[in-house]
Write a structure and sequence with these properties.
This protein has 134 residues and is mainly β. It has one helix at residues 122-128; strands spanning 6-7, 9-11, 14-16, 19-21, 24-27, 29-30, 35-36, 38-40, 45-53, 56-63, 71-75, 77-79, 88-89, 94-98, 108-115, 118-120, 132-133. β9 and β10 (56-63) form a beta hairpin. The longest helix has 7 residues, at 122-128.
Amino acid sequence: MVETEIQKITSLYGQRGKIFHAGIDLRTWNIKFWKPLRILFPEPCEVLRTWVDDWGGGIALKPLNNTQFDELKFIHVEISPALTVGDVFAKGTLIGYSMLSKLNKSHHLHFEVWVDKKTVNPILYIEAAGYKYE
């Protein structure tokens, strides 16, 4: 996921006032070196689709190890041009870097997990995949 040993969550899944936050936000800014962190494949995954909109770049992946999850979405990412829909990439392969956009004014990764065409709390995936978080 984010190239840090511990995934630092800056915003949780769930209701935020009148808006439902369908994922979690992970810190993607290295304060020590003042640069965005790399976003990496969390496990072997197939690229389902990519897009760019006012929120920045997005990528949807099909996880191949944690098959109880249908889709992983990463949003606010400047996606590597080497990623091709339908290709499978290994854990640790570069997805891209966090980015700023028209609607996203701070470096973070918005991460969503989907099961049966509905979002679920991404903490379920993070724990199943063995990632540490705070």
